[in-house]
Amino acid sequence: MKEILLAFIGSYCPAILFNIERKNLFWAGLCGASGWMSYKTILTSTNSGIFAVFIAAIVVSIMSEVMAKILKTPSTVFYIPSLYPIVPGIPAYYTVLYIIDKKINEAALKGLETLGSAGAIAFGILLVSTVFRFINTQNLNNKGH
Amino acid sequence: MEVKEVLNIALLSGEILLTSGSEIYRVEDTIDRICSAYGIECEAFVTPTGIIISGWAINGPNESMSLVKRIRNRTINLHNIELINTFSRELQESTMSYDQALNKLNDMKKAPYFPFVTRLVAAGFTSFAYTVLFKGTIIDGIFAAVISMLIYSILENMKRFNFSQYFGIFFCSLTAGLISIAASHLISSLIVNSIIVGSIMILVPGLAITNGIRDALHGDILSSQARVVEALIVVTSIGVGVGISLILMKYWM
User: Fold this and answer.
1) Can you say whether residue B101 is alpha, beta or left, with left for phi > 0 and alpha for psi between -120 and 50 degrees?
2) How does pLDDT run across B73-116, given as a tens digit for each residue?
3) Which positions 148-167 of B are in contact with A (Cβ < 8 Å)?
4) How many Å apart are CA B24 and CA B42, to the nearest integer?
5) Which of residues 53-112 of A touch B (CB under 8 A)?
6) Chain A closest CA to B234's CA: distance in Å?
7) ipTM of this complex
C-alpha cells in the first residue's frame, strides 16, 4: 500500500514538472502507480528485471492509450510521467559512477541493464501503440464503407 | 493562403512540438497534416536539432519552396504537445487565416506554466517518493526533498545566465553530493547513497534514453543517435559531479 502511494506521487509530481493539464494529473499518477505495481509483482515472481520492466511498459501504455481515447489527448501526455518510476535513470547514473571508481565489471553490468530496460520499455510501448493504431485504422475503414 | 505562409505555420508548429520534447514521427505527422489541410504537398525531414520542410501547391504553379529551422533547446512540456495536437486537428476540420493561426501559435509559446512554487514542491515530493521507494528511510527522504528543491531552483535560475545546460546539471549534482555527505556527517543514521540517488532523480535522463530507443524503433535512426548521445552527456555530467564529491569525501575523511 505504501509503495502504491509512493509510486503515485512519483508520477503525479513529475507530471507537474512536465506541465500537463490539471485534469489529467490524477490519471497520470494512477497510470504510474499501476505500472510500478505490475513491475514489482513480476519482479518478485520471476526475478527478471528486464521482463518486469517490459510488462510494466505494456501495462502503462495500454492504460495511457485507453485514457487518451476517453479524455481526448495524445497518449504521450500519460505515459511520459507514468514511465518515470521504471525508466533506467538510476542504473545509467551508477554506470558512470562505477567507471569513475574504476569498477569496470560492475559498470559493464549496469550499462547493459540500462540499455536492456530502455529497449524493453521502448519495445513495449511500440507493441501497444501499433496494435492501437491498427484498431483505429480498422474503425475508420469500417465507417467509410 | 500562399505556400510560404502555410509552410511557415507548419514550421512553427513543428518547432513548438520539438522544443517540447515530442517524438519525431509526431512532428512529421503534424507538419504533413497542416500542409494537406491547406492543399499543399510537402516533404518534412525532422531531427532533434533541426527541421527542413519543402512544399508545393498541388494545383498551382510548378515551383517548390523550402524552409529550415535550427532547434537549440529541448525540454519536456506535455501541455504544448496537447495544444498543437488539437490545433492541427482543428485546421483539418476548418482552415483559418494566416494571422489567426499565427496568433494562436504565438499564444502557445507562452502558455501558462505551473507557478514556480508548485513546481518546486513537486520536485521535492518526487525526490522524497523515490528515496523511500528505493529503500531509504523517511528521514533520508526529507533530506533528499530539501536538496532536490535547492538544486531545482539553482537549475531554473541558471537558465537566465545562458550557461551550457550540462554545466548546470554538473554543478547541481556536485552540490547534491556535497550536501548529502555533509548531512550524513552531522547525523550518522543517514544513508548517503539513498539521499544522493533520490535527489538526483529529477536530473537523470532515463526518459531520454528510452525515447531515443523509441525513435530508432520508429525508423528515425539519426534522431535516435542524437537523443541517446545527449542523454549520455547528461548522465556523464551527473556522474562526474557526484563522483567528484565522493572523491573529495574520501580525501578529507
Assistant:
1) alpha
2) 888 888 888 889 888 888 888 878 888 888 888 888 776 678 88
3) none
4) 16
5) 73-74, 76-77, 80-81, 83-85, 87-90, 92-93, 95-97, 99-101
6) 10
7) 0.87
